[in-house]
Amino acid sequence: MKRSMLSLCLSASLVFGAALSPTIAQAAAPEASTKASMATMQIPSHGAQLNGLVYVAEGTGPHPVVILLHGFPGNERNLDLAQDMRRAGWDVMYFNYRGSWGTPGNFSFANSIEDVSSAMAYLRKPENAAKLRADPSKIVLIGHSMGGFMATQGAAADPAIKGIAMISGADMAGMFQDVRAKEATQAAAVKKMGAGLAEEGLAPLHGVTPDGLAKELADHAATWVFPSTVDRLKTRPVFVITSDDGLAAHDDAFAEALRKAGDTQVTSLHLPTDHSYSDQRTELSKALLSWLATFK
Description:
The chain is α/β, with parallel strands linked by helices. The chain has helices at residues 5-26, 79-87, 109-124, 126-132, 146-156, 172-182, 186-200, 210-219, 230-233, 248-260, 281-292, and strands at 37-45, 48-56, 63-69, 91-95, 134-144, 163-167, 238-242, 266-270. The chain starts with a helix and ends with a helix.
């Protein structure tokens, strides 16, 4: 008697299942101690505890590290990029500056610059590096918008940082200088700059006023502009990524100044998109991963 179609299908599935099972069994999962994971922490910084996390890459490591720096006020966190970087073998640290997004303390640009240094110091403590399977001798700073400003300041103050990437880097001091050039007085420029900062949204930031932040930029206009960091960055890789958000002029000028100073490791890329790279996330990620691959 002929076997039914159902019995034939079942027999076939058993045969193919038996053939495939050795292959499936050989795909062993990584040891629990070397799996990709997420670690959360509070990073000490000048009396406050920064809320932070690290996407820990799979493997024993030690892994090179990206510190991913958010912008003003930090609505776009770029954590999709962090996931991609982790898959490529990088540990990725993200944290919130003092006074931002629930981290205690008062927000200011000066405090944020200090917080970047505190994050680097945290990674360099042997016990933290061991726990995160991180290589603190291979740290790269990647910043979006104001985070690009933080990356230039952080790397300029720390020669051990291997390189920086700026995603629509916002030259906050340079922007104030632009405003000042159009206003009759310093006070008028502070008021105009403050209004612009307020439009970005201050709700996630604690202890700030628009004019107070603008005054801080006015007070550091000469020392915080991107060109002021050229001499200290000109020996390191710098990736300058721009979009159609109006920030490209400062960023392109910075890249050109680095090249004129002798930096042969400057890479530039323009993507036709908005400030958050909303429709170019895949392209942005691929570009960053390709650049990061040059460090290994």
